[in-house]
Fold these 3 entries.
Entry 1:
Amino acid sequence: MAKIPRGRVATYGQIAAWLGWPRRSRMVGRALRNCPSGLPWHRVVNARGEISRRAAVGSMLTQRILLQQEGVSLRGGRVPLSRFRWHGPKKAREHPARYGG
DNA sequence: GACTTGACTAGAC
DNA sequence: AGTCTAGCCAAGT
């Protein structure tokens, strides 16, 4: 998760797959309950680009703000994955998605 | 050990 | 494009 570049997002399923556990997306979410500070937890969204309700302190408002600060804009409450999804630590693209800044 | 729950997902309508 | 369903598997009760 720490490898997710600024201005990009990944899904729970992706992270699970990178770790070698393709069917364990829920475990990623479970693990994030104890997410140590300093990790970009806000760059993790579900497969539809939505922010989970269980998001940390306060609400998903925090996550939305953090994402927007990185240039990840939400459309209709979702991150457009076609644009901001990160393709993984091994297949990472050279150029980040276009975002203001 | 048998339910229930959950920061999920792919597929069907 | 939205909503529902079945599948998932570790943790909690």
Entry 2:
Amino acid sequence: MTSTTDKQTTRQTGQRRAIFQALAKDKTALTAQELHQHLTGVGLATVYRNLQRLAEQGKVDTIRRPNGELAFRVCGVGHHHHLICRSCGRVVEVHDCALEDWSRKLATEHDFSAIEHQTELFGTCGACANKTA
Amino acid sequence: MTSTTDKQTTRQTGQRRAIFQALAKDKTALTAQELHQHLTGVGLATVYRNLQRLAEQGKVDTIRRPNGELAFRVCGVGHHHHLICRSCGRVVEVHDCALEDWSRKLATEHDFSAIEHQTELFGTCGACANKTA
DNA sequence: CTTTGTGCAAAGGCTTTGCATGCTT
DNA sequence: AAGCATGCAAAGCCTTTGCACAAAG
């Protein structure tokens, strides 16, 4: 079922490169629209299509903003969470996850299986706190 | 600033009652559209407006589904999280939160303040696991 | 009677999709 | 040359908003 010649169709195009690079450089998580604004000569639909693909391939992480928008970010490998400054949008990857044990415990207690958690942490970073003060 | 006679404008209407009751009875978190379907004689806009208000007043909790839809639920008081069956949608309130200490620690480590976390846990409940098996 | 709530339909914002053309391989 | 990728515009969803009418207090 996973062996039918599996053509890993993914052509190298300028737009694709541009999108990924822009994402890789940015310290914040960007939405398709933001990305589209920052780029030139890349259609919005193309941005959406590529982000979707990158996410499927696991090359970027998705972050759901409080208002429902979906943002994307190039991340390190392994399970981790995001500590996001609600002012400047800067993202800090947190690899120290406290939820593993917790969710295992909850699984037992409530007879649930295959528990997944998707947590975003929103706060104010030091820099922004100073600006405001 | 919080003392200008503060009219707690909130009239009692049949629709309002119907929406809240439907929500209170349901074991799952419902979206405005789902709620609108289940009810009769209540406009969709009215459902949206009331849910929004209820959420602002803290009378219902909001749950963001993986696909971005916003669902609502009448919950117990105090900080807690939701363990949601991805099959039947049943929601279990989890009052035992493991993230408090963790986020405090992260705040210190990364110089962030006012960290808030919004975590939803998705899994498969025992009943549904059996059905599938 | 005054003010808030409701319904309907229009409008908005984000995302996806159809189709013809262009570019990668 | 063959097929995926792109662009543009249209269409889809979910949600919000404007306005006239109905209802609550």
Entry 3:
Amino acid sequence: MDVKTLCLGLLSRGDYSGYEIRKQFEEGAFSHFQDAGFGSIYPALKRLTEEGLATCSAQAQESRPDKKVYRITPRGREALFEAVNEPPAPDKLRSDFMFVLYFADLVPPRQLDRLIAGRIAHHEEVIARLEAIDLSRRTSEEAFVIRYGIALHRAARDYFETHRHELVGDSIRSGATA
Amino acid sequence: MDVKTLCLGLLSRGDYSGYEIRKQFEEGAFSHFQDAGFGSIYPALKRLTEEGLATCSAQAQESRPDKKVYRITPRGREALFEAVNEPPAPDKLRSDFMFVLYFADLVPPRQLDRLIAGRIAHHEEVIARLEAIDLSRRTSEEAFVIRYGIALHRAARDYFETHRHELVGDSIRSGATA
DNA sequence: AGGTACATGTAAGCTGTTACATGATTTT
DNA sequence: AAAATCATGTAACAGCTTACATGTACCT
């Protein structure tokens, strides 16, 4: 799924500027399974407009660049319909963190401990962010996906809390603290 | 983490050919958090050799191309050490499947039901594959990562089994089957 | 005085994917 | 007879990331 389709999806639920779209990728309901930065969002919105899948209206603002608000067109909705009815490509996960853990014997115990603490904190953050979303204002599909995110991040957090001692516990207790 | 470093990691646990490395990405302990195809593995191994991080010995085989077996060098081990002691980049997950679910109202209920059934089956497959790994032959770090994979895929499977009715249950029961 | 949030965009570069090229052996 | 497995590699392409370019307003 390219960034173009991702943007189209967001626009199907409301009118947004590129800046707002990026914020949704960063903080919104999508944030736990998709990502995109300015460098891919702006060109994507441009192409969406060129292809007639969205329209753009520039809103003049004082002492700021024009805010360009995009709106999905009927043809854009068709394109989104077709995209979600295609068999989805397999998930792609790339976790440098897990790679590091796989070779955790090469990492000093202290650093490893900090790393895992940071990971747990990160999961807590994501959980808090997703829990803060008011589900009563969302479609049941959206709520399903958001709750999935919460469930998965909780599972990850719980795993680390329960098993972290298997990685760092012993090394910390023996001489490493000297 | 680029494919070069990923290959270096695998080579730190044994000598392998490009073909075998790909199999490990596909089926091995890594498979649930990293991925790479031939098109990136072969060039990566070539560069590893050029940079003196691995050596390559071609083993002649009858009626097959030479099998090129790579072995990590001491400098390769140093490079791996440095890589895993760098702060890891944040995880990157791209899930077209979750995107589709987010807009599941656009998908016919039957198709949605099949999609979710397939997803559950996929999680079962990954769980079975990871459970088949003999942990007694692995380092505790590797076992930790493998068990993490099992835990996460179980959580995902359980979520779908418990909540799938929220997405498709009602639509299936009402007129859609006509 | 400095950092963050608002606001958009381009260009170069890096990386990875897909398709192509080749060919024998083993399994179904 | 077809499909999968073994086995390596290149070239073109697509896509995303990073850095650059610009500037105001508000908060600390």
